[in-house]
Write a structure and sequence with these properties.
Layout: H1 3-33, H2 38-74, H3 82-118, H4 124-153, H5 159-165
Helix pairs in contact: 1-2, 1-4, 2-3, 3-4
Length: 170
C-alpha cells in the first residue's frame, strides 16, 4: 500500500471514530439523562469521558492533518477549492461546538458522581448544562453528514456559494 492510500485509510477510519463515537456518546447520555436512574447517568458519564479521551480526541487531531495532507497530495488548494473550504469551515464549526460540550460533560459527570455519593437529587444546574450539551451537540452533528457528503461527492458548488468562499483564499 502506498503512503497516500495509507493516510487516506487513516483519515477515513478516524472520521468514522469521530462521528461514530460522537453519535454513540450522545445517544447513550441523552437516554441515560431521561432514565430516572442516577446510577445509569454515572456509568454513562464515565464512559462518555473515556470515549472522548480514547477515540474522539485523537480523531479530532488526526482529521485535519490527514485531510490537509491528502488535499495537498491530490493538488487541491484548500482555500481555492470551494467544497473543501466549506468542509473545513464546517469542521471548525463542529469543533467550536465540541469544545464546550467536553467542558459541560466533565462538569455534568462531577455533578452526577457527587449526587450519587451524597444520595441527593441532581442540581438544576445539571439540567441547564444538559440542555446546552444537547443543543451544541445537535449543531455539531448537523455539520458531520454535510462534511461527509462534501468529501465524497466533491460537488461543484453554486456560483453564489463559491463566490462567498473564494475570498477566503485571497
Amino acid at each position: 500500500m502506498n503512503t497516500y492510500l495509507l493516510i487516506k485509510t487513516v483519515h477515513v477510519v478516524s472520521s468514522v471514530l469521530l462521528a461514530g463515537t460522537g453519535f454513540g456518546s450522545a445517544f447513550y447520555l441523552f437516554f441515560a439523562n431521561r432514565s430516572g436512574s442516577l446510577a445509569a447517568q454515572v456509568v454513562v458519564c464515565r464512559l462518555v469521558k473515556r470515549a472522548d479521551l480514547w477515540f474522539t480526541t485523537p480523531a479530532v487531531i488526526v482529521q485535519p492533518f490527514s485531510g490537509l495532507w491528502l488535499a495537498q497530495q491530490a493538488g487541491w488548494p484548500v482555500l481555492g477549492t470551494p467544497w473543501l473550504t466549506l468542509g473545513l469551515a464546517l469542521y471548525l464549526f463542529a469543533g467550536a461546538c465540541w469544545l464546550p460540550v467536553v467542558w459541560l460533560q466533565l462538569r455534568m459527570s462531577d455533578m452526577v458522581e457527587a449526587a450519587l455519593k451524597s444520595e441527593q437529587a441532581l442540581p438544576a444546574r445539571y439540567w441547564r448544562y444538559a440542555r446546552w450539551w444537547e443543543g451544541l451537540g445537535y449543531a455539531a452533528f448537523v455539520a458531520m453528514p454535510i462534511i461527509f457528503y462534501l468529501m465524497v461527492a466533491k460537488p461543484d458548488l453554486p456560483a453564489g456559494l463559491a463566490n462567498l468562499l473564494l475570498p477566503l483564499s485571497r
